[in-house]
Amino acid sequence: MKLLHQELTDVIIKTFYEVYNELGYGFLEKVYQNSLYLELKSKGLKVEAQRKINVYYKGIEVGQYYADLIVEDLVILELKAADCIVAAFENQILNYLRGTNCEVGLLLNFGKKPEFKRKIFENSKKVRI
């Protein structure tokens, strides 16, 4: 079975491990974000950091959030530097996917051991008003 945007997410995950192996554990998320941004750009990918995404309720803007990284306008990356991935982080990335046209999100944790979760939220299931 082929995963949505598999080639791209494979490159991102490999790059995540490269950054983790170089820096190790214990830095702030921003350090990992900046490093991952540089590595992904060096691989020729389009990467945006801290893109503002508006959140709507019944067609009215009710807030915004800033995505850590968006790669090729296809994959949202949410970076953490926590002991482990918890359900709240997974819910967060799903909400980010819900508010964009991106269908794939990667939750990347630069914790004591590196770990990631891949989340999908298909555009066909998103409510647009």
Defining traits:
129 residues; Trna Endonuclease, Chain: A, domain 1; 5 strands; 34% helix; 33% strand; single chain; five-stranded mixed beta sheet; alpha+beta
Would you tell me which CATH topology applies? Trna Endonuclease, Chain: A, domain 1
Tally of domains: 1
> Whole-Å distance between the termini?
33 Å
**Total beta-strand segments:** 5
Shape type: globular
Biggest beta sheet summary: 5 strands, mixed
* String of helices and strands: HHEEEHEE
SS-based class: alpha+beta
Based on the structure given, which CATH architecture is correct?
Answer: 3-Layer(aba) Sandwich
Organism: Flavobacterium pectinovorum
Protein name: GxxExxY protein
InterPro entries: GxxExxY (IPR026350)
Pfam families: PDDEXK_3
What does this protein structure show overall?
By secondary structure, the protein is an alpha+beta fold. It has a single domain (6-125), classed as 3-Layer(aba) Sandwich (Trna Endonuclease, Chain: A, domain 1). The chain contains three helices and five strands; from the N terminus they run ααβββαββ. A five-stranded mixed sheet has the order 1-2-3-4-5, with helices on both faces. A hairpin with a 3-residue loop joins strand 4 (104-110) and strand 5 (114-120). Helix 1 packs across helix 2. The longest helix has 18 residues, at 6-23. The radius of gyration is 14 Å and the shape is globular. The termini are far apart. 28% of the residues are buried.
